[in-house]
Prior knowledge:
The structure is a homodimer of 368-residue chains.
Chain A: E1 2-6, H1 7-17, E2 32-38, E3 41-47, E4 51-58, E5 60-63, E6 65-70, H2 71-80, E7 85-92, E8 95-100, E9 103-108, E10 126-130, H3 131-139, E11 156-162, E12 165-171, E13 175-182, E14 188-194, H4 195-206, E15 212-217, E16 221-226, E17 229-234, E18 253-258, H5 259-273, E19 280-285, E20 289-296, E21 299-306, E22 308-311, E23 314-319, H6 320-327, E24 334-339, E25 346-350, E26 356-360
Antiparallel strand pairs in A: 1-5, 1-7, 2-3, 2-6, 3-4, 4-17, 7-8, 8-9, 10-15, 11-12, 11-14, 12-13, 13-26, 15-16, 16-17, 18-22, 18-24, 19-20, 19-23, 20-21, 24-25, 25-26
Helix pairs in contact in A: 1-2, 3-4, 5-6
Amino acid sequence: MHFSCPQRTLLNSINIVQKSVSTRTTLPILKGIYIEAQEHHLKLVATDLEVGIENLLDAEIISEGAFVIDAKLFGEIIRKLPDDDVEIKLIDSNQVFIKCQSAEFNVLCHNAEDFPELPSIDDKSNFSISNELFRNMIRQTVFATSQDESRPILTGVLMEIDEDSFNMVALDGYRLALRKGKIKSELNRKVVIPSRTLTELSRIISNDDEEDVEICLSENHAQFRFSNTKIISRLLEGEFINYKQIIPKEYKSRVKINTKSLLNSIERASLLAKEGKNNLVKFIVSDENMVITSNSELGKVHEEIIITLEGEEIEIAFNSKYFMDALKVFDEEEIYLNFTTNISPVIFKPVSNDHYTYLVLPIRLSSN
Amino acid sequence: MHFSCPQRTLLNSINIVQKSVSTRTTLPILKGIYIEAQEHHLKLVATDLEVGIENLLDAEIISEGAFVIDAKLFGEIIRKLPDDDVEIKLIDSNQVFIKCQSAEFNVLCHNAEDFPELPSIDDKSNFSISNELFRNMIRQTVFATSQDESRPILTGVLMEIDEDSFNMVALDGYRLALRKGKIKSELNRKVVIPSRTLTELSRIISNDDEEDVEICLSENHAQFRFSNTKIISRLLEGEFINYKQIIPKEYKSRVKINTKSLLNSIERASLLAKEGKNNLVKFIVSDENMVITSNSELGKVHEEIIITLEGEEIEIAFNSKYFMDALKVFDEEEIYLNFTTNISPVIFKPVSNDHYTYLVLPIRLSSN
């Protein structure tokens, strides 16, 4: 196995597949990148057995073959090489020769046959989604997944495909994020994707020029394909919560508020709140304004924001973190906050469309 | 005590003095910033008892007075406020009121009288140095100070003032950095400044427009003054090593080499060297070129660089870290490496001037 390709192209490919290299594994081969030379291209693959990434790049193939090399060391070497052609050659079953200008390396490698194969996904059950829409959908949901491994299904994001409608939903028992999108498909499936897959995917596609991501689903896996990259992830097993019944249809108070002002005020209020329990901030909604307060042993804050209120005045308290997380991913200048009672959830919605719904449970005030 | 000033000015001042706030102290007051309102300005002071920083800023003083407030919390609050005037008022001896637009904070504070006073330095024994020259001198020496607290004097940088000549020297037992500068002075003093003082100072003056830094020396302290800021540091006690006798005057081989090529080659060689002991890289200097090699259980590297050699060929080995540290601060395109034997130090010098000298001890090769 012997090939040559530009340093930049190779480095770009390493940077993509490196995102799925195992960092905490006892199997040395999973810390490696599988590199295969065939016909006119190279294939780089890395996997931690949960997520696998495969990237193809053009290269001058002098002889075909494959090896596995430590991802960290290989990445560091290629990163430090000059911007010129890199020649790589398998010398024997456990040694690779790397040359660029007057720099020459001999590095230990593993046998390619020991590297686990990625599952192959049938391309039939598939649909496409625009890169930008998909990135937004991920960004607006993935932060609301649970970190608690005791309910594994909640550590992922539900993808609900019902022909042309495509919803992504995450919830962690305290809050829920629902993003609606449109696609063209004839599928009817619900799958739950691990949050880590989506986070890495979102990072990789944000640097990609391709307009669409093709998604294929098999029984136990999802495959995301764009440009020369394939990301294959296992699906989370189990039934996702019936989220629709959690979202209230009615409200008693509707507040129209500037997203950025609300975020700034809550960020300031949380500076004192975070010292106490639950990052508690209190909202007092009246006809003229919304007052946000919080206090701890270090002091107290009082913030006022101008709002438009429809309906009843209300006093209610929240964990400020759950508010800030969502306000940071709202792209709309103004949002609605829909309240019912101070022990029922608040619903966030953009003023100008119905694409996004975010729900947070309040904290019961001791005076209730 | 009651004043008003623009959020940005106050934040800038906090960012400056915050660099000397104690992070590991059991005295809560040392985690604070002392704020004093007098006449038409505010004075902010922070100290960890080793380094103290004082900054003055213009403010509208409604009534005079002082308090001490937790630096971290105060910094976070001011940073999050809108870009507008901030009003601050001492309500009682342990509570401060902060207001900006519709945001209001009440925060606990300490009594100003409990804050340690900075030493006052007599302005007589002083000289000035250009901001840019001083920053370069710090950058080119401070990295070579020792991290080993068992010889405290080596954790600082020697400043040697002999009328118009001003040298800064750092050494750690394995390498030495000497930077020569020019000033106008009638002083004749040697003082050792803690490396931390110089690192913080360098960060602060790099954002400063003032052309000169005024340096005043008392028996136990140094004061650095520029714009509205004073940094006062204790001096390290004890006699600095007579560094002049360490620097060889003669050499047997002189290599002229491109600084950037050498740095790149050593960085690549050290990718494999760092896995072994001492980051060992080996240099083989011959008439045509210099070969750099290193190896570990993971593999080996071979690098060639074109050089001009005057004198004898030589084989010698070094800790690559000591080479890289110095090559990163050399501003010259080409440098000389002066070798004597493979058990005596190498000297780095710029090709075009005599401002900088760097010395590294070699590692004895087992074959010697």
